[in-house]
Write a structure and sequence with these properties.
This protein is globular. By secondary structure, the chain is an alpha/beta fold. Helix 1 runs parallel beside helix 2, helix 1 runs parallel beside helix 5 and helix 4 crosses helix 5. It has a domain of about 150 residues: 3-Layer(aba) Sandwich (Rossmann fold), CATH 3.40.50. The C terminus is likely disordered. Strands 3-2-1-4-5-6-7 form a seven-stranded mixed beta sheet, with helices on both faces.
């Protein structure tokens, strides 16, 4: 049976990063993710994503921008012909991608801790500040479909990450990252095999398996 073709966008860092992409590759090797990763895209020519792509022999594409031009995203999709597109630590606004088959993993509760400027460490700092003000008790790993607006597509997966009194943005980041690594590949597999879907237009068209706890309560 032909496996779905998956294109991954992952920024990583100049010298490190790309752990989410690395875990997706590992999952394809163990069978936890039944998909073929056709390429990984990074805005850094070298660094963590490049090194992980080189090690796993995954086709690497350097995308330096401009990131507000839909034709560049469309060109990458046309050249790689994916069935689905996963944003895994992609720190740019993705434009021109089909919303019904493009999805993202976010390191905080949506919609409150999403939008322009709320990515990576900025999310954890905002969540810790809200915790100290007594506004939240948990952070969260969220997965959602992607539109042309930051973090506005329908959320189909939420996993709370408890915050302890001595947590900092740094320690919370490690806890959230561990949960991301635990669930990203499993939920990605559900998306690429049609168990989770939407029509790309109406959030009410979102479908998930019966009994699937994709909306665990978050205080």
């Amino acid at each position: 049976m032909k496996k779905p073709r998956l294109l991954v966008f992952a920024s990583g860092g100049v010298t490190n990063g790309g752990s989410g992409f690395g875990k997706l590759v590992e999952a394809t090797q163990t069978g936890a993710l039944q998909a073929d990763i056709v390429a990984v895209v990074s805005n850094h020519p070298f660094g963590g994503v490049y090194e992980k792509a080189k090690h796993s022999k995954t086709h690497f594409i350097h995308f330096p921008g401009p990131f507000d031009d839909t034709s560049f995203y469309e060109g990458i999709v046309e050249s790689t012909r994916p069935d689905f597109i996963a944003l895994s630590g992609w720190l740019k606004l993705a434009k021109g991608l089909n919303p019904w088959n493009t999805f993202n993993i976010h390191p905080g509760p949506l919609p409150r801790f999403g939008g322009p400027g709320l990515y990576g460490h900025h999310v954890h700092e905002a969540v810790i500040a809200a915790y100290k003000n007594g506004e939240v008790t948990h952070s969260e790993v969220s997965m959602h479909f992607v539109t042309d607006e930051y973090d506005k597509g329908p959320v189909f997966f939420r996993m709370p990450v408890p915050i302890e009194p001595n947590d900092t943005a740094e320690t919370l980041a490690k806890k959230v990252n561990a949960v991301e690594h635990q669930f990203q590949a499993l939920v990605t597999d559900m998306v690429v095999h049609g168990y989770i879907s939407w029509n790309g237009i109406h959030p009410d068209s979102l479908t998930v398996p019966d009994g699937y706890e994709y909306h665990l309560p978050l205080q």
